């Protein structure tokens, strides 16, 4: 969907209500310094209590059972835990709705684990246990962050603030067997650069929402790779009111009656002169009952920029299958080889290969 419009006509001005997707406050580095050592946030819980959604949809707090804190050896990182951080007020400074506000609050209030990283360098996070986690990353300099999750159930929030002139390479690998809900927020200051490579492999139901705001001359490149034999629903939302770059280039493989839903929303305001924006997604369907839905959207108020979107799906090309089968490979084996190459075309660590093999077998 594309909508281009001019909000001013002569002396008349159109009033367009800004979607309440992101609440962004002035950032102050001093807020990181004095954080209470508690993972239960009463202020956020009060918001949850006052949310106006039906009572029957409320989380039943009586007898609630949440994942336990991961035992030693199942949560490995060289960064601080979230409860060692100096100020959790960063959560409120960079608040957002995510895939669903209730789930954002759930992870922020009741997290059983999480990471707090401030500075530059390399960070690794490995979690092999069902989890509710909240994570904060303040990147100041050049950083490489690699995160791996392998489990049945996960609800997670991650906030990334990339400081002026900083660069971040982020790799996310996840294998979800049952239910996964992930919400990620990026704030890129002036001239910040982020490359985000993500591999999401799922046999269950996954909802993921990625929100991006960038200042002048910032650049965000997202390379999502999705393999699903269940239902995976992803949203990439960006808002720009000044010239910067935002690109989403996604590949998906839907297998074993799976379904992938891609939603891309780029809200480009007046003033984003010379900006460059694109969202593209292509999915391979490995069988007749696997499906793909795409809802790419551009909302453009500025004339002097480049913006484009596209989405497509297809079975594996016959000529590629014919070539591999002519070399002696069986039909199903050929499909798996092509699908693996399609998903692993970016620079992932070896764990990515293992996740894809598990799903495609």
Q: Point out poorly predicted stretches.
A: 19-40, 54-59
Helix content: 10-25%
How far is the first residue's CA from the last residue's CA?
Answer: 36 Å
For the report, how would you describe the main beta sheet? 15 strands, mixed
* Count of helical stretches: 6
Q: pLDDT average, as an integer?
A: 83
Order of helices and strands: EEEEHEEHEHEEEEEEEEEEEEHHH
Classification by helices and strands? alpha/beta
- Assess the beta-strand content as a share of residues: over 45%
Query: Which of globular, elongated, flat, extended, rod-shaped describes the shape?
Result: globular
Number of strands: 19
Query: How many domains would you count in the coordinates?
Result: 1
Estimated radius of gyration: 21 Å
Features:
361 residues, alpha/beta, 19 strands
What's the structural blueprint in terms of helices and strands?
Blueprint: E1 2-4, E2 8-9, E3 12-13, E4 22-24, H1 42-49, E5 75-77, E6 80-81, H2 90-93, E7 94-96, H3 101-110, E8 115-127, E9 131-162, E10 167-188, E11 193-202, E12 205-214, E13 219-228, E14 231-240, E15 245-254, E16 259-268, E17 276-285, E18 291-300, E19 306-315, H4 318-326, H5 331-343, H6 350-360
Parallel strand pairs: 1-18, 8-9, 9-10, 10-11, 10-12, 11-13, 12-14, 13-15, 14-16, 15-17, 16-18, 17-19
Antiparallel strand pairs: 2-3, 4-7, 5-8, 6-8
Helix pairs in contact: 1-3, 4-5, 5-6
Question: What does this 3D model show about the protein?
Answer:
The protein is an alpha/beta fold and 361 residues long. It has one domain (2-315). Helices cover 15% and strands 48% of the residues. The protein has helices spanning 42-49, 90-93, 101-110, 318-326, 331-343, 350-360, and strands at 2-4, 8-9, 12-13, 22-24, 75-77, 80-81, 94-96, 115-127, 131-162, 167-188, 193-202, 205-214, 219-228, 231-240, 245-254, 259-268, 276-285, 291-300, 306-315. It has a 15-stranded mixed beta sheet that branches. A two-stranded antiparallel sheet has the order 2-3. A two-stranded antiparallel sheet has the order 4-7. Strand 2 (8-9) and strand 3 (12-13) form a beta hairpin.
